[in-house]
What does this fold into?
Amino acid sequence: MTTTVVQEALTLERRADGRLWAARGGAARPVWVLRCFPWSEPVRFVSLRDDDENEVALVADPAKLDDQSRSALEAELASAGFVFEVTGVLAIEEEVEIRHWRVATRQGERRFQTRLDDWPLELPGGGLLIRDVAGDLYRLRYPRTLDRRSRELLWALVD
Amino acid sequence: MNPEQRSLDEQIITRYTGQPYRLPADLRREVERQWRGDPVLLYALADLDHSLRLAESWLLLGPRQVAVATLLPAGAWDVRSFDRARVRAVRNVPGLSASTLTLAWESGEPPLALVRYTHRQRRAIENIRVVLEEGLEGRAVNTGDPDDAYAEGVARPVREAQAMVAGRDTAVILRLLSYLRPYRRQVSLGLGAAALITLVSLLPPYLAGYLIDRVVRPAQQGLLPAERAATIAWIAVAAMAGAYLVRQGAAMVRLRLMSVLGEWVARDLRAELYEHIQRLSLSFFSRKKTGSIITRVSADTDRLWDFLAFGVVDVSLSAIMMLGLAGVLISLDRQLGLVMTLPVPLFVWAIYRYGEALNRLFLRAWRKWSRVSDVLSDTIPGIRVVKAFNQEAREIGRFDERNRAVTDEFNRIHRLWTTFWPLVMLAVHGTTVVVWALAVPRLLGGGAALSVGTFISFLLYATMFADPIETIGQIARTMNRATSSAHRVFEVLDTEPEIREAPAPVRLEPVRGRVTFENVTFAYDGVRQVLRGVSFEVVPGELIGLVGPSGGGKSTIANLIARFYDVSGGAIRIDGVDLRALDLGHYRRQIGMVLQDPYLFHGTVAENIRYGLPEASLDAVVEAARAANAHDFICKLAHGYDTVVGERGHTLSGGERQRVSIARALLHDPRVLILDEATSSVDTETEREIQEALDRLVRGRTVFAIAHRLSTLRKASRLFVIEDGGVIESGTHHELMMKPEGRYRRLYELQLHLA
It folds into this structure.
């Protein structure tokens, strides 16, 4: 399987089967997307993969795609890059071996747990990322702008 | 799944996730009605809607149907069912925190169903996906109880992260205290000694007051003859000395008794824990990190020693002491007593709050400390890479930055406690000043009468307040630490081994080594089948080569033969008897294993060779070593067979460790032998020596040899090609090479070409 970096001829579209299709030179196939740099360059370097997980193309810069392809790709990236966006921390409690969180997110209120020695991760592009025991991700985009109570609760866990 | 396990999982889901702990009953009824009575086999929550907001939809699987049910704003269910037979493809697209499962019909047509879900639902969704995919391949999967599968899938990550013990903290503490039961006498003596210390401690201040009021002042005023005063004074002084002697004697008895007692209880816990760990199945060890298990046996039992030896007595006696002192002070002088005792709850509260603040600071310091540790655990093992890329300066800078950060945090802690305790003491002294301010006018004759002796006694009692206040203030922390450790220890003790001995186990005397697989299926997680209906028969003395791609099921076959796990379906028979009916200990003594990375224990070479047969003679040890081509290199070691090999045998090379492990297997003389990649990680010359040793080892035994290098298996009686959970080809090397399109032939030719 050959890998091609930025194909002018690459076009993308969402078809009736609900999938993103990549077409180049008359051949088309369904693909799914993988961000190569999900935090430092979330909208560049997008790897398009077929059902066998082989790379079909690497879109280094979506701005070089035509409008329709770009918007189809952006829609796909939205679901592939989904993480909970934390807007407030409501409670943090420590229990045996786990830390129990209750947070407000853009998607709704959520309860989750982290291991006691799993700390929020500082992201290259700014903000913090928390990973719960199930593997779900919670992003605090601007920790310093959270309300006072949230910042107090987070104080011991972040710088 | 046993009812307790399911109940625990349901409690976890309710308490920690806030999502339903099982399929809503009304939805199940509605779906089964639509399916004309067909039961729900599996279900999962799809907790994101199409715009990626949290929502409640359910994906349900029946014997012939699939349904997606969405909760409507009015509280009703929108159920869409379709036939399973219409599903032509199952696709799962993973994302950072949300995945999409699509059940497709014809390519290009809108999907039959598309659900989005967070990682929390992954296992439950995967269960359905696997069953559908297996169905597309024409294979049926036994799904088990749907409620169990869902609860297990959702609760598992929390259960794996947390030591959960059914019951409240008080129940855990009571259970912990029950370990003191065998030492009732020592506990009673220790408590008695502690009570005596408390009582005797009250005597010297009383005597001081008595001496001043009843002896010194009357003598000074000429109301008591000097001789009589001296006699009473000396008796009082002697009584005081006696009180101190008794107090320290009781303290010695108490300290010794309780510390020894704590050690006994910790020893009992460690022994029970270690014995239980030895009986646990391999699945427990794959779920828990090694470090976590070691911590439970070492640090947690040590912490419990501390609690049992001192915490229990200290806390209870501090409470008694504080109440006793308050009573004595108020009875000595109500006004001054109230001045001293009323602020005590405030002090206890302040110390409690201080503890909370300190906890937050320690949490920060712990986090920063872990960043320092990260640098160390990164760079020390990887020092060659650091040097090779000339990155020493950068690593020093990284360490310095983190070292400074952790120092800042510790200094913040020091600032807190060095501020807090002087302030507390200032408050205590402030109380004393108030007491003085109120007492002085009375001592000088104004207001209610107050004798000097009573006042001295009062002051001496007042100084005894500080310690119990501090102990009571820290009670929450003491209890938290103890219950955390107890939870972790009891979690292991409450884990039941999955491999159980049959009620009337059978002993094969002797084991001949006929191994029969009858339609064996196996899944590590209960759903994803690693083996699918594997059947074969191996006669005693055969050497069976297991070959095929990684993940095909070769090692699983070996694990099942050793009965590290029980089959999910079908049966394995040894000499015609179901493996599950055999005496496990006796059977395991007939099994030998030589692994790719042989594990040697800390000890001498001889002890390692004798591991399975500690009573073996030295002659037998040397003979086994010779047969394993190990005798020569062992003799050349500085201390020969008495050489200590170090932890995991790190002082020996890979090939040497392998030959010692072969000698160990030879001495053990097993009827059934498993060789798992025994020669894969050594050089050609070493491989030749090991191969010679293995040739001697396999003679007269039933052998299962797993190898990627197919050339090492040419002497095999038969070869089984294992792929995708089944035996897809079997026969001798020659027979398999005769198949023009055979999988084995292709693999063999590929390896020959690469060589």
